[in-house]
Amino acid sequence: MAGSLPTGSQRATSSFFQKPLMEIFGSFNQFGLTLLGFGKMNSRLNTASKTVYIRILLNLLVETF
Question: How far apart are CA 51 and CA 65, in angstroms?
Fold first, then answer.
């Protein structure tokens, strides 16, 4: 009985964290597509928007985790 408790709690925590993580990465994806679309519209600022996007994404990742 005691051996089955850790596996049950591990399943609970993995399913508990799986959905929020998917939502977080989904919002990152949407955010990235919006920024990349803006960069394609302004082709002169394309490389600049990419570097800014990468910096923002890294900052968000550091603050989230």
Answer: 21
Range of the domain at 34: 21-64
Indicate whether 14 belongs to any domain.
no
Give the separation between CA 1 and CA 45, rounded to whole angstroms. Answer: 61
Q: Using an 8 Å Cβ cutoff, are 32 and 57 in contact?
A: yes
H or E element, residue 49 = helix 46-64
pLDDT digit string, tens, across residues 22-41? 676 777 777 777 766 666 66
Tell me the whole-structure pTM to 2 decimals.
Answer: 0.29
- If one counts the domains in the chain, the total is 1
